[in-house]
Specification:
281 residues, five-stranded antiparallel β-sheet
């Protein structure tokens, strides 16, 4: 109440069991005034929400931007529209989540209302399980949607990729999110944790593909520049299947320096490819 009074909002109070605080009769809040940058941020933010969430928030975005259109002065609206055409953010998602929009919407509502769910999950190792989950949060990370929640099958916090969820049903039960839980902190911790066993991968790239490696290097990979323009990329990997496939995309421009297991995998894969095309005209 003190802050409202300092802002110049005319309020008054009445003591007693039937008293309270009230605005002075007839007072109305002044219209919101935005700078071009503030208005542009609202429009761009609304468009990002629509792109990321799809149908779940499409109607809300349309309604919100329509309200902005009605209250902004014509000159400011014209400036904002020009900025929108020049400031474009896209490519948040690695895939079209259209087929998963109903699942995303069910998950969003379950997270908001703290409703326990039963889901059928198809893991990376092709295992299909039905799990009871207390859904704590939804997160967009690395271009993919993830559900974070307490898995009753494992008895611990787990992360599930939404595009691997085949079915979602409510159980009718509710739950409470632990006060200490932070989805942002949990995901950051998960990204920084190193597996118990890992390989130290090192790959040398010739100079004519070095620019590609530089542009595509991830933050968790170390790049070393060589005097001849070539580069060496090093990183840790929990398994060698994907580094093998990744190295082969550079054909004869990449040389695995280690570990020996990856050298053998790439060599065997190259021989198998050559054998497949041995009799080809």
């Amino acid at each position: 109440m003190g802050m409202l009074d300092e802002l110049g909002i005319p309020i008054y109070s009445e003591r007693g069991p039937y008293g309270g605080f009230s605005l002075v009769r007839g007072y109305k809040l002044p219209p919101l005034i935005f700078t071009p940058e503030e208005a542009t941020a609202l429009y761009l933010g609304a468009e990002l929400v629509k792109d990321v969430w799809g149908a779940s928030y499409r109607d809300a975005v349309v309604a919100a931007t329509a309200k902005l259109d009605n209250v902004l002065p014509d000159a400011l609206l014209d400036e904002v529209q020009q900025l929108q055409r020049r400031l474009v953010v896209t490519g948040w998602l690695r895939r079209d989540y259209g087929p998963w929009e109903p699942i995303l919407d069910d998950l969003r509502r379950s997270v908001a209302r703290r409703r326990q769910i039963s889901l059928v999950y198809h893991s990376f190792r092709q295992q299909v399980t039905r799990r009871i989950i207390d859904p704590y949060a939804l997160a967009l990370q690395w271009g993919n949607w993830y559900l974070v929640g307490h898995c009753h099958l494992r008895g611990d916090l787990r992360t599930f990729r939404v595009d691997r969820i085949e079915e979602v049903e409510g159980t009718g039960a509710t739950f409470e999110v632990p006060a200490s839980f932070s989805a942002r902190d949990y995901l950051l911790q998960m990204s920084q944790e190193r597996p118990a066993s890992y390989y130290q991968v090192s790959v040398h790239f010739e100079s004519d593909v070095a620019h590609i490696v530089r542009e595509r290097r991830e933050a968790w990979q170390q790049l070393m520049e060589d005097k001849d323009g070539s580069v060496t990329l090093s990183f840790e990997a929990a398994d060698l299947a994907w580094p093998c496939r990744w190295v082969l995309t550079y054909q004869d421009k990449a040389t695995v320096l280690g570990p020996p297991e990856l050298v053998r995998m790439v060599r065997d894969a190259a021989r198998a490819i050559a054998a497949r095309y041995a009799d080809s005209p």
